[in-house]
């Protein structure tokens, strides 16, 4: 992880620890955080602290409107997504910077030491080992994405099981209520016709509330499946990137045709890495925009649930 990201991470950890120790969020300052972590620029700390306070305010507001289990689950999913995006971006930037530095070094060696062709070949073998490690790291990322997809499937299955259990419980209660109603009606039908009508009305309302709850649960299951589809798309992207790197590795084995060709190839690699770095930066911005969109949709959906859910279901 880069130094800037380490500073941002430690800023968040320190802010959370101070709040847990009794500090209020508005009492946290840049100087207070810097005195704790002793690293990074104050501008970086200020930006991250401001973002943390905003997120803290929104999460507190969200937690006050929802049951604790639902709020914790949504916030946990969002935190894992953000942390994963930052971790992938920082790791890839570090790899690109290291590879760019190696390409610049190879270009200088090709200009000033044309007679060192054998040494250059040895360096390429070392680079081959580094690319192999990068491929292994990408495979690990792919496995992590598959694991997250499996977790999304498990959550969807759990929601479906919960929906079925609640539906069965509602059916049981409804049957019990109807049985009691029939017994009471047999003995008191003449004198309790008005009460019987009121009871039937309450039963209809309970049925409507249960149908509303079931609709909300189906929406949550649909959202979980959508998250799984997005995780699968991310896994496919990582697999495609892995295949591209394998192709680049095969091409690197034949770049020693001549000393002049080695110089031109090194220059082309430098330009390619610069473009690739820009692509990853755009990809990170895209991921951040997607995360913001997911978070906004989640807040909007949860607000709709809080507003439209029947009073009994909210309790």
TrEMBL record:
<dbReference type="GO" id="GO:0003677">
    <property type="term" value="F:DNA binding"/>
</dbReference>
<feature type="coiled-coil region">
    <location>
        <begin position="221"/>
        <end position="297"/>
    </location>
</feature>
<feature type="region of interest" description="Disordered">
    <location>
        <begin position="165"/>
        <end position="184"/>
    </location>
</feature>
<protein>
    <submittedName>
        <fullName>Plasmid replication DNA-binding protein KfrA</fullName>
    </submittedName>
</protein>
<keyword id="KW-0175">Coiled coil</keyword>
<feature type="domain" description="KfrA N-terminal DNA-binding">
    <location>
        <begin position="11"/>
        <end position="120"/>
    </location>
</feature>
<keyword id="KW-0238">DNA-binding</keyword>
<dbReference type="InterPro" id="IPR021104">
    <property type="entry name" value="KfrA_DNA-bd_N"/>
</dbReference>
<dbReference type="Pfam" id="PF11740">
    <property type="entry name" value="KfrA_N"/>
</dbReference>
